[in-house]
């Protein structure tokens, strides 16, 4: 629902007028009004796909499957010709299969959604005069939102206040660089790009602070309209692309075989309706119809398991990419180090302890309202421990931190004498760049070459010891009515240094070794200087092979970076765009790249990476861009997540191997049987029953145990290998089917019911038992299957042997077999298991190493 027409073209009207039209106030909405509006306008989401509507859509999707539609059409054909029994059987199998698939997928989806709520993006709003953190979905028109660097903007709105406020809105406008936003009025006909007094949902704050009045939420926003029109979806993953290509292969094979079978049976004057039903059932039989459910179960199980290890999965399909990852890029803070930053020393320009430097830094950090960070927290904690306070000062203005200037300035006024001072803190080189004087022990002196060399020597020495070094400067200012700007940051006095220390993580060396054993190479990409980065890396046992700095990257062509990036494991002094460039270079050379980041400057790299990983304490824009969120900033949980990703991939590939190879063999066998039998080798309802009974154990693959061999190397989709597997094992199945045909014709003659029953039993038992063979690269008796898989196979084998003797067997026209025929079928099944085991070892010796089964690494 849209807000009232009285706020139309809100960008061309004064903020007070728009606020009044929305019945809001600078103190925000009261809680009861906000609750009423949430019911009135609905959840702040870009689609209305919620609750019962979402459940219904998920259920109806089961019936949009082309294979299901084929079955429904076959049932309608049977109804038309009054073949009631066949029609009811087909419909019953359709309903049972789709309902079962829906139930397991619905439960899995709900479980994952519950996990994802733990890392939902939040917004800071003013309610009842107090700032309050709420879920973005609960933001309503009329809310006052507080925005700072790293915030995702939760709705379309009008700026009320802004200070050096820059927004990245390429998502909507395509603008490459952040644009500055200011309160004001723009013409009524201004386009989206020209509305510099507005903020828009889905964009993010690059720097500065602001207050904005939310005017439109959810589907009424510009982002919501785009999402609704284009049905935006995440980019197709490599695994999804492989599945799609493989599905196209199956369709082509299916069409050829079905057309041939249909033609042969028509030429042989077999009953037309039975032939049509037979051909359609056969078409369904080739395809892995339970694959969507298997994938959902497998992925959701992986997501739940990863959650127990502290990894929340935001995008299910990214789990396979995590298993495929072979390069992992990360900053050093919180991964190689503990992430607990402490202010170790505050020193003057001569390297002596100086409390004045601490006090200046404290005033700067305590009044800072932009980007929250652990460095400011460390400064405040150290100053308060010394008993320092800011009560004698008042904040006059702030020039927020940004990643170009790499410094933050606060203008304070001393209450006692009304003097005004700008205090700047930031990266040492960037602070020195705006200084022309230096504070010495006795006086203020010009910043000459001698002082510059001394400062740089101190910086290099402390950095080599692992300290992160910031600079502090000040400048006495005349008080003015307007805002101060970054142009005022000049001719300042350099006061001294802040030395921060982040202790190396004690067990990180073991984790890095574990990642190496998994075939994952770790690379450090950091904005810190090269000396600190090298010291920390070597302190945790990380072997630095080569360092490339941001300055090196500026002079390097893309082609050169493509060549060097795989060989370099430490990148220092890099900016956000350079991080993205490094990720892209690694991808160009065929690597699947993961990136761990938690800051605004990490967002481009997180978007570019195959696997984006963030932490729960990350800024909104980083958390939103990530595929996975770590509840702890710890590489150990990532190691466990990679293992789970590979387990998930392995179980998905197992199902594809098993169903396609068995079903392909059955289709070929039926095509051959159609050439010489005076009757259909199986009835349509028998084919469908066969598929249904074999699919029940297949559901257990989602929880199956995985051999350790699967987890020791990255896995990638290899359609050629799977195609070879399908043809190889399909042909083995055909050979044993032909043997079965010969035995049945010898022992039972051309008695249709006995022939069909014998082949039904042989076909189903071999498909069930081959699950135990193909699910592992080891000899099947050395690899223990999952409990459900093992017992369901045993149960289905027993049911297969008993089915001809049960009343329901007559419904499917299955007849009890004579003793010699039954013994022959059991013997053929046993021989098939042994030959399949031998074929498996020969195949994998020829086409791939054992640990790479089904994949290419």
In the CATH hierarchy, the architecture of the largest domain is Up-down Bundle
Strand order of the largest sheet: 8-23-22-21-9-18-20-19
Q: Quote the distance from N terminus to C terminus.
A: 50 Å
What overall form do the CA principal axes indicate? elongated
User: How many domains is the backbone divided into?
Assistant: 4
| Range of strand content | 15-25%
Largest sheet: 8 strands, mixed
Structural class: alpha/beta
Distinct helical segment count:
29
Q: What is the mean pLDDT?
A: 81
Percent of residues in helices: 40-55%
CATH superfamily descriptor of the largest domain: Calcium-transporting ATPase, transmembrane domain
CATH topology of the largest domain: Calcium-transporting ATPase, transmembrane domain
In the CATH scheme, the class of the largest domain would be: Mainly Alpha
Alpha-carbon Rg, integer: 34 Å
Pick out the low-confidence regions.
Answer: 229-234, 849-857
DSSP strand count: 23
Family: Belongs to the cation transport ATPase (P-type) (TC 3.A.3) family. Type IIIB subfamily.
Main location: membrane
Keywords: ATP-binding, Cell inner membrane, Cell membrane, Magnesium, Membrane, Nucleotide-binding, Phosphoprotein, Translocase, Transmembrane, Transmembrane helix
Subcellular location: Cell inner membrane
Question: What can you see in these coordinates?
Answer:
The protein is α/β, with parallel strands linked by helices. The protein has four domains: 5-47 and 121-230, Calcium-transporting ATPase, cytoplasmic transduction domain A (Distorted Sandwich); 243-304 and 643-852, Calcium-transporting ATPase, transmembrane domain (Up-down Bundle), CATH 1.20.1110.10; 311-338 and 505-631, 3-Layer(aba) Sandwich (Rossmann fold), CATH 3.40.50.1000; 350-501, 3-Layer(aba) Sandwich (Calcium-transporting ATPase, cytoplasmic domain N). The chain contains 29 helices and 23 strands. The strands form three sheets. An eight-stranded mixed beta sheet has the order 8-23-22-21-9-18-20-19, sandwiched between helices. α5 packs parallel to α24 (684-698), α9 (272-286) runs parallel beside α24 (684-698) and α26 (752-774) runs parallel beside α29. The chain is elongated. The model is unreliable at 229-234 and 849-857 (pLDDT under 50). Pfam families: Cation_ATPase, Cation_ATPase_C, Cation_ATPase_N, E1-E2_ATPase. It comes from Desulfobulbus oligotrophicus. Its EC number is 7.2.2.14. It is found in: Cell inner membrane.
